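Hello, quick one for you while I still have it in my head. My current little project is about how a certain protein chain folds up. You're getting the sequence in one-letter code plus the fold written as tokens. Would you mind checking whether the tokens look sensible for this chain? Here's the protein in full, and shout if anything looks odd to you:
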Amino acid sequence: MAASSSLLFTLLLVLLTFSDSSVQTLGLEVGINYGQIANNLPSPARVSYLLRSLNISRVKLYDADPNVLLAFANTNVEFIIGLGNEYLQNMTDPIKAQNWIQQRVQPYLTRTKITCITVGNEVYKTYDHQLWSNLLPAMQTVYNTLVNLGLDKQVTVTTSPFLINAYPYFAYKDKPNEVPLNYVLFQPNQGTMDPSTNLKYDNMLFAQIDAVYSAIKAMGHTDIEVRISETGWPSRGDENEVGATPENAGLYNGNLLRRIEEKQGTPAKPNVPIDIYVFALFNENQKPGPTSERNYGLFYPDGTPVYNIGVQGYLPELIYSSATTNNGFSICSLLVLAIAYLISS
């Protein structure tokens, strides 16, 4: 029964893949963070179709989930995969690092585009000094292992570019009476002038990016590209989480996507379009912390948008029903409503 369902789903995904012209969407020139701390998310195979219907070709994971990597095989979607903090100590050991890469990365490279490995996640927020001390050695060991295995031309470790998480939302939430809402939402505003550079900023995100460039330059580096591995805005929050509304989230992400579409650079790097991974694809109902942590998604788990930002994707809906053959065997028939959608298009 499971084999029959798998075959039917595969055939239907092929049908849907070759019928992309029937789905009207606006392509997104942006990456997306695909978190999975939830118990109600659609299968990776269905997510694969949703992202392709949105023309999203770059995905960032927080692990190296084989189910996701297999679901996106032969799709030309590029993946950043993650080594969680729990692996950092092991990754300082060359043998353990090689075992991880050979088991979790190498088998998928022939079919799935893994272009980057992040080592650790928000390590400095943990205040765990052991994690801090393991971070750089782990990055070096993973990189050396990729070189030794001849994989360094396919996969990079985040020594370059420099990835940052930038959230203007937090600045506004903490000081809503001091930080203008229009300034953080990319709405028309008076802007602010940097007294050191005389550059004018009309939004906080670009100011945050250039602040990182300035810090890197102060350390003697001028050839490191800054990319935003996370940015977003929650659509819901606790009483003290000022500004966490669907309206503000829609304005932030919608205006950000327009800036990306226009290939805008920051005032300090006007000719370098910003490179961003939006956080996040889905609301994740099992994330710990305040309410906002569970409400950063662009989509609900059923594939409907949390708010309107001018894009429309399609998540195939699966309905299972059982039937019995004349021989008495129970079979599973799979109905994909996407077929009706395609026929009606």
